[in-house]
Design brief:
single chain, alpha/beta, Rossmann fold, Rna Polymerase Sigma Factor, Chain: A, 4-stranded mixed β-sheet, 14% strand, globular, binds NADPH dihydro-nicotinamide-adenine-dinucleotide phosphate, binds magnesium ion
Length: 398
Amino acid sequence: MKNLAVLGATGSIGDSTLSVCRQNPTLYNVQFLYAASNVQKMLALCIEFTPQYVALANTEASAQLNKQLQDHNLTCQVLNENDVLALLGSEQIDSVMAAIVGAAGLKTTLAAVHAGKEIFLANKESLVMSGALFIEAVKASGAKLWPVDSEHNAIFQSMSASLQETIGHCDLKEAGVSKILLTGSGGPFLNKDLGEFSDITPAAAIKHPNWSMGPKISIDSATMMNKGLEYIEAKWLFNANKEQLQVIIHPQSVIHSMVQYQDGSVISQMGNPDMRVPIAHVMGGEKRIKSGVDNFDFFSTNDFSFVAPDFNRYPCLKLAIDACYQGQHATTTLNAANEIAVQAFLDERISFPAIAVVVEEVLNQLTPQKISTIDELLLIDKIARQSAADIINRGITC
Ligand code: NDP
Ligand code: MG
């Protein structure tokens, strides 16, 4: 049995991961659970999975959890932030589900990478931010990287074993890959009148037509910033250049992405849109395991379509693709400004179209910079968050 750490255990990916654990009780020992502040959910998970270690990033919540665990006579040890990083680097953990949302996941994901662990990567923002540094660390430590994001998992599954083994430094040309085709549903506003975008409410934007996900990624899917972040993620995971990456809208979310080869073959992975599928794939490793998801019923769909993305409808996608080729300072800034803008939209402080306006304005203030350390990235992240907050506080009319 492998010892598993679930980072972001109380979230949507955390739920799906633990559901796959329930389906396959002899594969993983749930050794460590980590989240931010959800005491009640974490307590319930501790009662069910009895991990040896548990942590909540919020210190007040952590103290409450400690007390509740004692009241329930549970012996899980509650760790502080430094202990978390040490645990992730220790022999007590074999595999790490990196599923904290946003830049908050960077430190823990990188700690697991540096320690050479088996990493199930859901936290795309950490790779978007740290790109080259992340991949260099994977190479140096020998960490085994498994993409959880459904598109990247589909691409991974559509690749030969030799490409899968060289994740982070794939030679796509040598392997005869002509293009990676990254599919996305287009979100809930694919056919909405552009003139009505200012009236979009958080409740409407969160309601994804096909996937059930956490709030931040749901908004990112509606703006297609999510596909932009995934474009950057794909560049790093598969060492792809501009000519080798293409975004295609596929509203039904049955094909989860494709790889096109130079002989004209296109290989894809398909299935119901449920994250337990890619999670079971990475957790099973060489072996196919149960996910609890039904087989896809091909007779349930009477349409299977593909559309090119329109950047007027999805300006965030364009901003992300452009940032991808500007460098880490730009992708870190894009990610940070987006996190602030999405939260402001969820808090009803800005309109839906203003998300892209905030991100663009913050990017426009940027001066090119070469990044060589994580501390430099964290500083850029901080400055971008402040710039985005200033722009929002000044007020945006759109
Ligand atoms: P959720 O919002 O549902 O969950 C986020 C999790 O992160 C929660 O457990 C939360 O804890 C925890 N968390 C937040 N901040 C911190 C912190 N500072 N320290 C420790 N834990 C923290 O997000 P999702 O599960 O939807 O997404 C997680 C990641 O997976 C994201 O990077 C997303 O892009 C990626 N992803 C998600 C997909 C999906 O279908 N949901 C698909 C593909 C990728 P708490 O509950 O206590 O706040
Ligand atoms: Mg995805």
